Amino acid sequence: MPKLSHEALVHLVRAAPEVIVGLLQRELGLELPAMAHPRITAAELVDLNLAEYRADAVITLGPDDAPTEAFVLEAQNDVDLRKRRSWPLYVAGLRARLGCPVTLVVVALDPRVAAWCAEPIDLGRQRGTIHPLVLGPAQIPVIIDLEEACRAPELAVLSVAAHGREPGAEFIALAALTAVRGLDRDKELFYPDFIHAVLGEVARAALEQLMNKATYEYQSEFARKYISIGKAEGKAEGKAEGKAEGKAEGKAEGQAQMLLKLLRVKGFTVSPAAAARVESCKDLDQLDLWAERVLTATCLDDIFRA
Questions:
Q1: Across-strand partners of 72?
Q2: Per-residue confidence in pLDDT tens, the chain, 306 aa
Q3: Cα–Cα distance for residue pair 253/282, rounded to 1 Å
Q4: In whole angstroms, how large is the CA radius of gyration of the chain?
Q5: What is the CA angle 109-113-119, rounded to 5?
Q6: Dihedral sign of CA atoms 234, 207, 78, 262 in order
Q7: Strand 129-130 and strand 121-122: pairing?
Q8: CA dist 250 to 130, 206, 213, 256, 302, Å?
Q9: Any idea what the Cα angle at residue 24 is, between residues 18 and 27, rounded to 5°?
């Protein structure tokens, strides 16, 4: 599958704890109270506030002041032997903090990594063992039904991340794009970017063909705004320079404005020189490549590198 940044996956699983709990119930058979009310809580697990002792997320069930159960939630993209030392500490530290049963849950979207994460962790002479619960590709449903996607937008996005290189992934992505429409502004910007980044090349090209159809309505507010601007400018230019050329330039200008908006939303300071470089670019493939890099970039140089 495409390389997915750890931060992007953590952002997704933190956004909807009920999705994770629902998967544990449906796919792994956990019996949980009907009114569990899962919540994300502080992920610091021990008194020492060190980064290596901080889980990706913690989900609690029950009252805030007296949870009945908790899950340490980890997102894992690679095999990392250090985790087999730190994960038991996460479980023990959270149990000491909350005083309730604690289970380790790992989200691993690569089948090889998921199999490794599921291996029991022996704490010594088989007198104590951690058995992680793993949500891998086999436990993430394929969602192409629009109504199902709209009922659980984060699960629809997670479905794209898990199955983005499989045949028909463009329809999974299209359902997810439809589902995230109308969410809060941060999610409406982040999720389409995330979806595009995790798709395989074949599915991405097929998705673009679907989205280029006249009946497709762009999902995010800024996409609809700037695509419409691009089309309008393209139409005006097309009268003077030819319809085909005007349409292509209009689309490029619309995508350039979308990219600049996304950069600012992601917190990058866009210099006049960088803005001019984006606005002057008429290469749709180049604009797409820059947009893909925004999700994992830490600076503008990461985005505009050769």
A1: 58, 104
A2: 445 567 778 888 888 888 999 999 999 998 887 766 788 876 655 544 555 567 889 999 988 888 999 999 999 999 999 999 999 999 998 999 899 999 999 999 999 999 999 999 999 998 899 999 999 999 999 999 989 999 999 999 999 999 998 888 999 998 998 888 877 766 766 788 888 888 888 888 888 777 765 455 554 554 454 444 444 555 555 555 545 555 556 677 877 877 787 777 677 888 888 888 888 888 888 887 887 777 667 788 888 887
A3: 7
A4: 22
A5: 120
A6: positive
A7: antiparallel
A8: 57, 22, 16, 10, 27
A9: 125
In the numeric block, which tokens belong to residue 16? 């909807």
Those residues whose C-beta lies under 8 Å from the C-beta of residue 65, and which sit 6 or more positions away, are none
What distance in Å separates the CA atoms of residue 134 and residue 116, rounded to the nearest whole number? 10
pTM exceeds cut of 0.70: no
Report which of 284, 302, 214, 202 is spatially closest to residue 248, judged by C-alpha positions: 284
